[in-house]
Structures are given as structure tokens and as C-alpha cells.
Specification:
The chain is of the alpha/beta class. The protein folds into two domains: about 140 residues, NAD(P)-binding Rossmann-like Domain (Rossmann fold, 3-Layer(aba) Sandwich), CATH 3.40.50.720; about 190 residues, Dihydrodipicolinate Reductase, domain 2, CATH 3.30.360.10. The strands form two sheets. An eight-stranded mixed sheet has the order 13-12-11-7-10-9-8-14. Strands 3-2-1-4-5-6 form a six-stranded parallel sheet, sandwiched between helices. α1 links the parallel β1 and β2. α1 packs across α10, α4 runs parallel beside α5 and α8 crosses α11. The mean pLDDT is about 95. It binds nicotinamide-adenine-dinucleotide. Nicotinamide-adenine-dinucleotide binds next to loops.
């Protein structure tokens, strides 16, 4: 395929980032966009290109449409993805892929049945820092893994939760500080450390009104490889701090903040370490969501991931983060919520 005809469904906060990425990628063209809000769809098409639609069934008939980014509220994705897959279009989902593993499995089945590709946005995996860390793990540089931690001490104003009826609801947001915000670092943590065996968690709503979900969570983890860890997540901490993932082993440690390395040291040094440490001084190439969902976010992570997805479609190889990868963080957060609700340690399946 020479050029992937690309569509975006859901044109709110994150939709424009997808549009900018598609417009920046060779081998893809934004051909159609869709939002139930007609005026938004029209203005969006004027600014970024593509034909505007207000109905999913209509955009799916657009000639030359091959792939669709689903940027709608999280708990709507299974219903929409099933229709997109049935129409034979490839699906790129924003995170979280859906809000429960049962609903994720509906998407997996639909895409497998139709033979279309499924990708899930986790842009922080595409940070150079994350790639260095994953490579060092593959090379065994950390020795035996001992501790793996994720800290997401973020701030979301009351106005943020009030800005959409779906925000902060179990039905459509699927959770709070963990399912919506912390999921990026939770994904990184399990990608680096391997599967989690069990969790023990507490969650609470301490600072926001009119939300059902947690704005504070503390979690103890045991990984299948015997390492321990913690997750601390909140959207109640002003002004919001860089999201941090720490990986510690008997032979080395590395720490990432907002997709940027801030610590890197191993018993056995390598020549490439000098370059890696020198790059630690610059700014985060991906930006941060610490205090606001979008103000600090740069498009580079999304651009790399959507470029990978487009290349996957054009060459027939799987995308770097497919549906099964996207499912893992949701299974983990589901177990965390189950533990918090029951007061028991929960085995992660
Ligand atoms: N990767 C990231 O860093 C990142 C950042 C922000 C949001 N997100 C994710 O993106 C998703 C959307 O979040 P948002 O903040 O952009 O939400 P939003 O409410 O700003 O935008 C969602 C849009 O979807 C539209 N919509 C709803 N139902 C629709 C339907 N059936 N058909 C077409 N359009 C429909 C709404 O009108 C709205 O414009 C969420 O799942 C969120 O977790 C990811």
C-alpha cells in the first residue's frame, strides 16, 4: 500500500494530536474525521484536513479510508472498534484500549476476526530513554531485578473533571488516577519488569467533587520474577510532579521521569553510557501531563507510534504495541481495583 488513508473519530482534546501526527507522517493522509459535535467536526476538518462526519457508519464508507484512530471516551471504544473492524479498517486506539479486560477482549476478537491490525497508544514506550532501558534489561545489565516502582503525582483541577460528563465516571473513564492518568507509567513498569503476580491496593477520592473514581491510590506489587514494587498515583497533588518509573537491580538502576532518563548507573559500564548520560541533561522529548492533560504534552511520542502503525499497515508486520500489549496494563489496574474493593491481595491473571 502506497498511502494509508487515515481517519480520526473523536476530535476533543487528543484528536488534534493524532491529526498533527498523521499530517507529519510520510505514507499517510488524513482523509476523514468524525465527531458527534457537528461544528467541531467541521472546524477540525478546516484546520487539519479530511472530510468531516458526525456518524461512525458514514465515515466508515469514506472511499480510500484504511485506518481509524479512536479518540473517543475510553468506555465507548469497544462498541466503536467492533464496527470499525467489521468494516475492514485498521484500528489505532487511544489508551486505555477499553476500561475492562472483558471489553478489551471484544475488540481483540473483532480485529482478529476481520484480519485488521489493532494498535494501542502508549507513547512513552517510544521515548529514547524507555528504549535504552528496555535494551539494557534485554542485555541483563540490571542483574537480578529487586524493585520496580511507578510514581504518578499529578494534578487535575476540578474544572478538568467538570469539562466532560464522562470524566471521573466508572462507566466511561473506567477509573481515575490509575486507569486514566497513571496507565502510561503502569504500562512502562510492567513492560520493563515483566508480569505482576499479585497486588494489594488502597484507593480513595480525597480532593475532587462529583467524581466516582479514585484521585489517590497506593499499591504494593509482587512481580512474577520475585521483585517487589509500589505504585503511587494521584491527581490531587498541586502542582503535579514528573511521572517517575524506577527500575532497580543488583547490578544497576535506572530512573525515568516523563520519558526522560534522570538516573543511569551499572556495575559494568559500557561505552554507550557516556552518550546516554549526556542526553539526560536536556528536556523531556515527550513533555509532561503532570499539571494539565495537554499543555505540557509534545506530539513526538504519538508521532513515532502512529508512524510505526502506518508502517505496520504498509508492510504487513505487527505494530510495536498491539492489542495484546495494550491489554496488559488494564488487567493489572483491574486487579488493583479488585484488591482495593475487597481489601485482599489479588492474583493478576
Ligand atoms: N495518550 C495520551 O497522552 C492521552 C491524552 C489525553 C487523552 N487520551 C485518551 O483519549 C481519549 C479521549 O480523551 P479526550 O480528553 O480527548 O476526551 P474529549 O472528551 O476531549 O474528546 C472526546 C471526543 O469524542 C467525541 N465523541 C463521543 N462519542 C462519539 C462518537 N460516538 N462518535 C464520534 N465522536 C464521539 C466527543 O464529542 C468529544 O469531542 C480518552 O480515552 C483518553 O484516555 C490520551
Amino acid at each position: 500500500m502506497k498511502e494509508v488513508g487515515y481517519g480520526i473519530v473523536g476530535l476533543g482534546n487528543i484528536g488534534p494530536i493524532h491529526a498533527q501526527c498523521v499530517n507529519a507522517i510520510k505514507g499517510a493522509r488524513l482523509v476523514a474525521v468524525c465527531d458527534t459535535r457537528a461544528e467541531l467536526a467541521r472546524d477540525f476538518a478546516k484546520q487539519y484536513g479530511g472530510t468531516p462526519y458526525t456518524d461512525l457508519a458514514e465515515i466508515l464508507k469514506h472511499p480510500g479510508l484504511h485506518a481509524v484512530s479512536l479518540c473517543v471516551p475510553s468506555g465507548l471504544r469497544a462498541d466503536l472498534a467492533e464496527k470499525v473492524a467489521r468494516a475492514g479498517k485498521h484500528v489505532m486506539s487511544e489508551k486505555p484500549l477499553e476500561i475492562t479486560t472483558a471489553r478489551v477482549d471484544r475488540i481483540l476478537r473483532a480485529c482478529e476476526k476481520s484480519g485488521v491490525m489493532l494498535g494501542c497508544i502508549f507513547q512513552y514506550r517510544f521515548a529514547e530513554a524507555a528504549q535504552h532501558l528496555r535494551k539494557a534489561l534485554d542485555q541483563g545489565r540490571f542483574g537480578k531485578l529487586v524493585l520496580g516502582d511507578a510514581y504518578i503525582k499529578w494534578y487535575r483541577s476540578q474544572a478538568y473533571y467538570d469539562s466532560g460528563a464522562w470524566r471521573g465516571t466508572w462507566k466511561l473513564d473506567g477509573g481515575g488516577a490509575l486507569m486514566n492518568q497513571g496507565i502510561h507509567q503502569i504500562d512502562l513498569l510492567q513492560w520493563f519488569m515483566g508480569p505482576v503476580k499479585s497486588v494489594y491496593a488502597r484507593i480513595a477520592t480525597v480532593a475532587h467533587e462529583r467524581i466516582e473514581v479514585e484521585d489517590l491510590a497506593t499499591v504494593m506489587l509482587e512481580f512474577e520474577n520475585g521483585a517487589h514494587g509500589v505504585i503511587e498515583g494521584s491527581t490531587a497533588i498541586y502542582p503535579g510532579h514528573p511521572a517517575r518509573v524506577e527500575i532497580h537491580g543488583t547490578q544497576g538502576s535506572a530512573v525515568i521521569e516523563d520519558g526522560k532518563l534522570v538516573f543511569w548507573d551499572f556495575v559494568k559500564k559500557r561505552v554507550e553510557d557516556k552518550k546516554i548520560v549526556a542526553a539526560m541533561k536536556g528536556e523531556s522529548e515527550l513533555g509532561t501531563g503532570a499539571g494539565d492533560p495537554l499543555k505540557g504534552l509534545k506530539i513526538e511520542g504519538h508521532r513515532r507510534q502512529i508512524e510505526d502503525f502506518v508502517r505496520a499497515i504498509r508492510t504487513g508486520r505487527p505494530p510495536a504495541i498491539d492489542g495484546r500489549e495494550g491489554r496488559k496494563a488494564i488487567a493489572l489496574i483491574e486487579a488493583i481495583y479488585k484488591s482495593a474493593k475487597s481489601g485482599r491481595t489479588i492474583q493478576v491473571k
